[in-house]
Amino acid sequence: MYPFTDIKKESIASLGESGLIRALRRWLGKSSPRTPFGIGDDCAVLPTQTGRGLLTVDPVIYGEHFDDTVSPRSAGAKLFKRNLSDIAAMGGTPRAAVVALAFERRVKIEWLSEFYRGLAENSRNYNVPLVGGDVAQLPTGIVATLTLFGESTGRRILTRVGAKPGDAIYVTGTLGGSRRRHHWSFSPRLHEGAWLAQQNEVRSMMDVSDGLAKDIHALVPAKACPALIAEWIPVSRDALHASRTSGRPALAHALSDGEDYELLFTLAKSASASSFESRWRQAFPRLKLSKVGQIVSSSAFQKESNRFVDLNTYRGFEHLVESKSPVARSRSAPTAKKSQAGKKA
Amino acid sequence: MYPFTDIKKESIASLGESGLIRALRRWLGKSSPRTPFGIGDDCAVLPTQTGRGLLTVDPVIYGEHFDDTVSPRSAGAKLFKRNLSDIAAMGGTPRAAVVALAFERRVKIEWLSEFYRGLAENSRNYNVPLVGGDVAQLPTGIVATLTLFGESTGRRILTRVGAKPGDAIYVTGTLGGSRRRHHWSFSPRLHEGAWLAQQNEVRSMMDVSDGLAKDIHALVPAKACPALIAEWIPVSRDALHASRTSGRPALAHALSDGEDYELLFTLAKSASASSFESRWRQAFPRLKLSKVGQIVSSSAFQKESNRFVDLNTYRGFEHLVESKSPVARSRSAPTAKKSQAGKKA
């Protein structure tokens, strides 16, 4: 949907400030608890927590993460879910969200209401109240920024640090071709992340947002390398589909398309892989789990490097340095790469 | 400073993604703790907390809250401080911040480094680590959104709800003329807010961001009115200065300029005002405290309405409905009103 209109009565400019706030509350419905636990005070008061607190923030931007071909409900849903995926990546439980929306006055009421319904649906589905936020005027465009507060589910938070040479590398689900549908339809791996954080033999974890080939480096300690076996990479049907159009191998799509929102983690060398995999299958019988390789020392990697995936071939997208004008990019349908405009700082 | 450049080596486009992340870490220095308590993982792990959690979010936007006449350091400082003021308004203590930055590739490295230094300085001054964030590309402009996590300082959180007819209305500091300097130079009232939350006779509180005349309504319960006495309003020197230029009464500036970032609160009818005021003077000898009026029942207000400030005369700025083009507005120096582009949702 094209988000803007020059017909004033169809734009948020016609609502006035208090009218807009009332409308937002109505669109959110029960997703926003009563003040002070929801919208309406200087801060939101968070639910009582028992675990360690977690905080993450990610935006969706018109012309970067979505465009006119995307339903506003999908854009709102994605904003919520990409943040949920970050909480999942630590093994945490999401507790509350705040959203800061900046948009020009020409935004359609209809667009905004659908966007908020996309937020509200996910707020209900994942039981994460939208407790507050801010709306501000922007000279042109739309930027929606969601911050998610969460907490550790059990005793342990799984970070990106902890893998050692000899540890196995695993990934959930299948990879690649996300732009076809998965980057809108994915389910953040919250249950799986929480379960993995409870398995002591799991050493480190993250979610796959920029593609396995790029993201895996974040789990690899100094003087080590990720030794990935091409045949073990779980290539998605959508990656096969993308391959037919692009002419590139499906493996290339699986490794570098990004926006998979799957979990990538390492299992301690000392652990029994078969016992771990069997417990996984009991807990999550319907979600594929794949061992994709191993962390090895740099010297060991050099000796047998021809056995492993050459990750230099599949370098991820370099954010913020692309030569094409972002405005020009925004006029075509968003691709997975376009949607990767963000980078954790 | 004009934030953009077409000379590539001076723009963030020349840094590349990993170069930019390294630069951000360098600019933040000790303001960002080591991962997982700082930048570098899927979420930031928050410091251990003992109180009730608080969450607030506010942006600064190029062309709305700042423009080319403003130093990037001031813009970064304001982003941090306007969020701190929201924590102060609940009597809370700020604990950690995350910042989501969206900007076009033409942003100058120099501009961004100064903006981050503005954030880092306030992070150190207020002992609030910058624990994470996100950088993303925007078709045009700059939007910086900061989310602040805090916790209750003592047992009590002061919300906007709780005032009753008969309660006195107080405000800290002086009001009006903020656009001259105060909206950049203000100090968030964190100590004062925390102290006020410990005084049981204080019933409700907020910060003054849109002007007393508009904000006071948020503290007034149903079937009651704010009875403000004109002579009691603490008019700032900057309001007097603004009055000489605008030709409007200084009182009008004090009531409606906004961006005062002072605390507005109500004291229970049953409390001893003189004892409370004396304790205030002991705790904060240098910060003016003014009783500005009383919450009264609607019927009592009608009977003596000519004694009180007619707040309809001083209605605040209607956000998001202004008829002038926001782009046109951005070309002149920002005024307090322009800076009020945001509204708590």
Question: How would you describe the overall organization of this protein?
Answer:
- The structure is a homodimer of 345-residue chains.
- Chain A is α+β, with helices and mostly antiparallel strands and 345 residues long.
- Chain A has 2 domains: 8-155, PurM-like, N-terminal domain (60s Ribosomal Protein L30, Chain: A, 2-Layer Sandwich); 168-314, PurM-like C-terminal domain (Phosphoribosyl-aminoimidazole Synthetase, Chain A, domain 2, Alpha-Beta Complex).
- Helices cover 31% and strands 22% of the residues of chain A.
- The first copy, chain A, has 12 helices and 11 strands.
- In chain A, strands 7-9-6-10-8 form a 5-stranded antiparallel sheet. In chain A, strands 2-5-3-4 form a 4-stranded mixed sheet.
- In chain A, helix 3 links the parallel strand 3 (92-103) and strand 4 (130-137).
- The longest helix of chain A has 17 residues, at 72-88.
- The radius of gyration of chain A is 21 Å and the shape is globular.
- Chain A starts with 15 loop residues before the first helix and ends with a strand.
- The relative contact order of chain A is 0.16.
- Chains A and B meet through helix 1, strand 1, strand 2, helix 2 and strand 3 of A and helix 1, strand 1, strand 2, helix 2 and strand 3 of B.
- Strand 1 of chain A pairs antiparallel with strand 2 (53-61) of chain B, so a sheet runs across the interface.
